[in-house]
Write a structure and sequence with these properties.
Radius of gyration: 22 Å
CATH superfamily of the largest domain: Type I PLP-dependent aspartate aminotransferase-like (Major domain)
Number of strands: 12
Number of helices: 13
Strand content: 5-15%
CATH architecture of the largest domain: 3-Layer(aba) Sandwich
CATH topology of the largest domain: Aspartate Aminotransferase, domain 2
Structural class: alpha/beta
Largest sheet: 7 strands, mixed
Bound molecules: pyridoxal-5'-phosphate
Strand order of the largest sheet: 1-9-8-5-4-2-3
Order of helices and strands: HHEHEHEHEHEEEEEHHHEEHHHEH
Length: 399
Amino acid sequence: MAGAELIGKEECKEVMDVLRTGIFARYSFDKERQGIWKVRDFEKAFAKYFGSTYALGVTSGSAAIKVALTALDVGPGDEVICPAFTFMATYEAVLEVGGIPVMADIDDTLNLDPDDIPNKITPRTKAVIPVHMCGAPARIDKIMKVAKKHKLLVLEDNAQGCGSSYKGQMLGSFGHMGIFSFDHYKTITTGEGGMIITNDLDLYHRAEWYHDHGHDHLSTVHRALDGRTILGFNYRMNEFQGALGLAQLRKLKKVISAQRKNKAAIKEAFATIPGLKFRLIPDPEGDSATFLAFNLPAEKKTQAFQKALKAEGIDTVRFKDNFWHYVPNWEHFLAKSTANSLKNPFSDPRNRKVTYSRKSIPHAEDLLGRTLIMGINVKMPAAKLKAIRKGIANAAKTL
Ligand SMILES: *Cc1c(COP(=O)(O)O)cnc(C)c1O
C-alpha cells in the first residue's frame, strides 16, 4: 500500500493549490492558472529522480504501456515478448495496439528470464517487455544485452518497481522507454495515473503527441493553433494527479527505507526455516521492499504452509492460483475474447497464431507453485512485527 498509507497535509496542500486556481487541465489557461503547473512540475521532478531526460504523465499505468508501445511503433503483425507472471495490463496493452503478446518464462528473480527470450523470438518479434514484479529487478543488464543482439525494442513495465534500482541505476531507465503506475496499490499513488520515461526525444514526442490527440504543444499562443503530424487519443494526466504525484514523490525515499526495515525484520523470522529460500534479487541494495517472496521445495508443502500462516493471521499470495497475474489462469485471454466480436487483433490475418501453453513456461509453473508472496507495509509498528514474527514461528512448527 506504500504511498497510500502516507497521504497527509503535503498532498492536501498541493491539491489545494490546484483547487484555488480553478484550472484542472494540464495545458493552456496560462494566465488563469497563476503559475501553477502541477503535471509539468511532477514530470520534471520525476525525470530528474529517475535519471532520464524526458517524462510524460498519463492517466494510468495501463495507458502508459499503450502510449509507449504506440510511440515505439508496435502494431499489427508485431509480436511482443512478455513474462508469464505480470499484471494483465501488460498483455492488454499489446493487444490494444494490434500486436500479439508472446508469453515467456521467468527465472529465480520471478521476472522475465533473459535466457528464454531467444526461444520466443520469431521474424515478427519487435519488442520485449520486462516487468519488474513485486518491487524487485529482473536481470535487466542481461535482458538489455539479449535485446540488443536481436535488435528488439525494450519497454520496461516498472509499474511495481517505482524507486527500485539495479547497480545504482533506477529501474525504468534501462529500456528505450519505461513506464510507472500510480494506482492506489502502487509504491506512490495519484489515485489513478502513470508515467513514461525515455531519453529519446523522438520517442518522447511521439508519446506526447499521441497522448493528446496529436497536439505538438509547441505553440506559445493558443492550443487551437498547435501543429500536428499524427493522430492520437486522450490519455492526459490532470492537475490533481500532478499535485498528488509531487507530494508523493517527495515521500518515495521514506516509503522505501521504512519498507526495507520492516522487510528485514520479517525476513529474519523466515530465515531459520529449513529448505526455505528467498526470491533471488539480482541487486538487493536496489529492492524497494514492497513484497517479501520465498519458496519451499515442494508445492504441497507450500500450500500447507500458506494455510498455517493464514491461521496465524498472516496473508500470502501463491501466484499460481492468482486470476490476474498469471497468464495460464486468464480464461478470457486464452479464449481470445477481446472486447470486439471479431476477436481482433487475434483474428487479424497480419498476426501469427500464437499459443499459450503451460508447457512452454516450465520454470514459472514450478516456481510460482512453490512461492509465497507477502505484502510489506510502510506502517508496521513494533507490536505488529512482533506478532507476525511469532505467527511465522508457530506456522513453521507445522512443517
Ligand atoms: C498496476 C500494473 C499495471 C497497470 O497500471 P494501472 O495504473 O493500474 O493501469 C501494469 N503493469 C503492472 C505490472 C502492474 O502491476
